[in-house]
Structure formats: C-alpha cells, structure tokens
Amino acid sequence: MAPIFSSFARKIKQVLLFLAPLNTFEIALFLIAIAGSALVYFATLHFNPVLIKDIDWEFLRLATNLREYGVYADSSDPSAFHLSSGYTPLYPLLLVPFVYHYTLMLVLNWVLHALIIVFTYRLAIRLGAHAGVSFVACALFALEPYHLNLTNQIMSEMLFGLLLLFAVHSALTYLQEKRFLYLGVASLLLGLSTLTRPSAEFLIPAILIIPFFTLGVSRRAILHGLAGVCICVLVLLPWLLRNYYFYHAFSLSSLTTQQLISAGIPQYLEWKEKGAAATEKSIYERRYALYREAEKYLGYHPQKPLELNIVDRIVDFNEARIINQHMVWPLLKTDGLSMFGFYLTQLPFQLMTDNWRTALDNILHLPYTQTTSLSAALAAVRGDFSQILTTFKSVDPYLFAFLAGKIYWLVAYLLGAFGAYVLWRRGGTVRLAAIGLVLLAIYFPLVSLPYLESRYRFPATPFIFTLVSIGASVISVWIAQKVQRVRHR
User: Fold this and answer.
1) Which residues, in sequence order, are CB contacts of 411 under 8 Å at separation 6+?
2) Which of 109, 206, 453, 469 could be disulfide-bonded to 129 (CB atoms 3.0-4.6 Å)?
3) CA distance linking residue 396 with residue 132, whole number of Å
4) Distance (Å, rounded) from C-alpha 486 to C-alpha 489?
5) CA dist., res. 476 & res. 182, Å (int)
6) Rounded Cα distance, 116 and 124, in Å
7) What DSSP state is assigned to residue 250?
8) How many CB atoms lie within 10 A of CB 208?
9) Model-level pTM greater than 0.90?
10) What is the residue-wise DSSP string for 361-386?
C-alpha cells in the first residue's frame, strides 16, 4: 500500500506545482496586497463607516441560514424560507464558518485577493516575464483602488478570480505536459468557478477544444476533452438537480433575468429612444418603470416599493419564467440584433469606466457635483484646456481620481496588447497561452456588458496584468540595451 500512496502523492505534487512555496517577490506582493486592503478598510471606517456596514446581505443571509437551519434560503424569516435560486452556492458555503465574525470575512477576502496577485505574478513568470518588472506590474495591480474597495465588500469576485486563475495554471501545464491529470484538475477548478459565479459556464466548451491544440485531431484528444467536460458536469450536477427538483429548471441561476431588467434592458431602451442623450438618471427611471411592469405580470403587490423588492430579494426560476415570457423574450425577438450591436458599441466605454472616482467616493464620501467632473473629463477629451485648468483650480479630488484611473487603464491595455503580440511571435505553447489570455481578458467585459456593475469585469484583470508584465518586460529589456549602447559609445 505504501508505494501506491507515495506514487499518488507524487502525482498530486506534480499537478499542484503552481502551489509551490512563495519566493521573496511573491511574499512581498502578498504583504503589499494585504496592506492595501487594510489601509482602504481603515480609511473607509474613519471617513465613511456606513459603507463598511453596507455588506451584501444576500451572501451573509444564505451563509447564516446554512449554518443555523441547514437550508439554502435567501429569506431571513425561518417560518417562511424562500429557497434561493439566484446565487450559486460555493461562496456562501465558504462564509459559513465566519457568519458571526464580519472582520474575519473581510480578512478572508483580503487573503484571496493577495493570492490572486501572487499567482498572477507566477503566471507571468511562467510565460517568460522579467521578475522585477512583473513585481512592479503586479504591485500596481494589487494597489488598484477599485479592487481594494471590492476586497472590503462581501462579494464572490475574489474567490471566483482565484479559482479561475488556478484553472488557467493547470490548463497551461496540460498544454506543456500533455497529461490528462492536469486537464482534469483544470476542469474541476472550472466547475468550482462556475459554482461561484455562473458566468464561467460559457468557458466549459473550452475544455473540449484545448486537447486538440496539444494532441492534434486524434481519438486521445476527443477522450480527454469529453472526460474534462464530464468532470465539470459532475461538479455542477448536485446544484442543477437541486434546482430541477424545486423549480423544474435545469439551470444554474435565475439572477440573469433580474440583472437584465435592472440594468441591461433599461440601458438599451434609453439609448433607443434618446441615443447619445441618454443619462444615468434617465436609465434609472427606466429601470423603475420596468420594475412596475414586472410587478403587474408577477401578480403581487409588496408592501415596500418594487425596486427594493427586486433588488433585495432574488427573483426565483418561477418568477424568471414569467418575466422572460412577457418582457425579455418579446424584446429579444424584435430587437435582439440591435441590442447586441448596442452592447458591442458600449465595450470601449465599459473598459474605461470611472472606477477610481467611485472608489474615492466610497472611502471619503466627500460632497461633490458629478456633472463638474464629467464635464471636465469631456473637456479633456475635446482638448478644452481652459476648462480643465478652471476645474483643476477648484481642487476637485474626484477629477484627479477620474483622470488617473483613465490613464492607468489606458496604459495597462496598451501594454497588455503589446504583451499578447510578443507571446504570439514566440509561437508554440506560448502562442496558445496568448490566445487564451486575450480571450479571457475580453470574455468577462463582454458578458458583463448588459450590467452596470464594474466588479463583474474583475476576473479579467489577472490575465490583463499577466500580459502587461510580458509587454513591460520586453520594453524594459529594449530600454536597458539602448542605455548600454549609449554608455559604450
């Protein structure tokens, strides 16, 4: 028996090579990320303590009901449990031991975020990035204000991002080693990612495709792909069967319908009627009108306003069917292509969303006029420098945050695009990795286009900064060579 166990242990160690002990750079990145999250927490606690208490009650309620009653329900009244079908269960399960310790839940998020930074750095090194340059790039990623803000909210983005990053590491090892064990681990991790956030479900077909890149069109590649998909399905099957048993819906989540009527459809309808003149205020007014329409079809009249009802209580599969039948499907039938085109045109604006100003507002909660910052930013785009100087003289911190965020992400996207080009030129497995990283970097902004929340794009960030590390490494080598030539003249 001993040789069998030792052989199994060796295989597990080989599979989890990306979990090797941290080196000096990685420990430093871990500590930088933890320190950044803690600094934002204490600053927010001092300037805006209300936000710290404004946690995502759905996740906490689900975890509390699991711990106290053993029921996965999103209602707070034990006598009238409403079985949840909105949030997938992995993150609430992770929170169960910490439901009465809010600070520990935050620390858990800090650690998950710090590990994302560490394994982003490790992925960049695997693909040939320079250690020092990657350290700087990942440190800038670790200190990105909006992400630090997310670490201090009880949301599933950190767990989702880490599991997905682990899956990419395993898939990359499979491309190099051609052994199914690595693809099996990647499939398992992708399944767990999908149980954290359903948006990963559309990545599952990639498990079928990956073997053909490394094994060619062969029987072995087909078997590897099918076996990998089976592992994903087995991970998801208990949750799918549970939803089918209670709601007769073989689906992961009913949350998509709620998000469409609260964000995606209002954006499109406002654009359709007013075009470029659509404003944030009018979009929210359109949202409330859709809520009232949904109330009519659902046939109930809650005591509190419907916008609170829809936002605070997740629509279940039965309600989602009614809303889809009367509101979503008819609109998609008549305007589906137009909606798709509209969302694609929004991609550049979504990528450059003003997240830093939001982060600063969450921390400091200063009084400001939003139109002032927006008009100054538009003036910057037009080149109206007199208005820029006038606004700068008013010492509006939100404008500085707005412009700094735009510059930060513009540089990141440019370096990331260059990094993808560098990997493509190298060919082989690295070229496949470049394709995968670019697709992942684009995928999450695309699937989050109908929603107003920038946090849905967070899982793409590790892959963007992996490419940033590659691009910055090549540029740093080029600069070093130029400097050396000048010195030798």
Assistant:
1) none
2) 469
3) 35
4) 5
5) 33
6) 12
7) -
8) 15
9) no
10) HHHH-----HHHHHHHHHHHHHT-HH
* Arithmetic mean of pLDDT, 275-300: 70
Over residues 253-272, the pLDDT tens digits come to 877 777 787 778 887 887 77
Cβ neighbours of residue 22 closer than 8 Å, sequence gap 6 or more = 30, 118
Cα distance between residue 362 and residue 401, in whole Å: 12
Distant-in-sequence, close-in-space partners of 187: CB < 8 Å, separation ≥ 6: 207, 227, 228, 229, 231, 232
| Rg of the chain, C-alpha, whole Å | 24
Distance CA 195, CA 396 (A): 42
pLDDT in tens, 128-171: 999 999 999 999 999 998 888 888 888 889 999 999 999 999 99
Query: CA 287, 292, 296: angle at the middle one, nearest 5?
Result: 140
- Least Cα distance to 251 among 158, 167, 321 occurs for 321
Residue tagged 């929004």 (tokens): 346
Q: What would the DSSP string read from start to end of 406-475? A: HHHHHHHHHHHHHHHHHHHHH-HHHHHHHHHHHHHHHHHHHHTTTSS-GGGGGGGHHHHHHHHHHHHHHH
199 token code pair: 């948006």
Rounded alpha-carbon distances, angstroms, from residue 327 to 85, 266, 323: 20, 12, 5
Length of the chain (residues): 489
Distances from the Cα of 454 to the Cα of 191, 277, 447, 449, angstroms: 24, 22, 12, 9
Q: Interhelix angle for 205-215 vs 180-196, to 10°?
A: 160
Residue 343 token pair: 């969302």
Number of other residues whose CB lies within 10 A of the CB of residue 434: 23
Which residue intervals of 299-384 are DSSP H helices?
306-312, 317-323, 329-345, 347-351, 355-364, 370-382
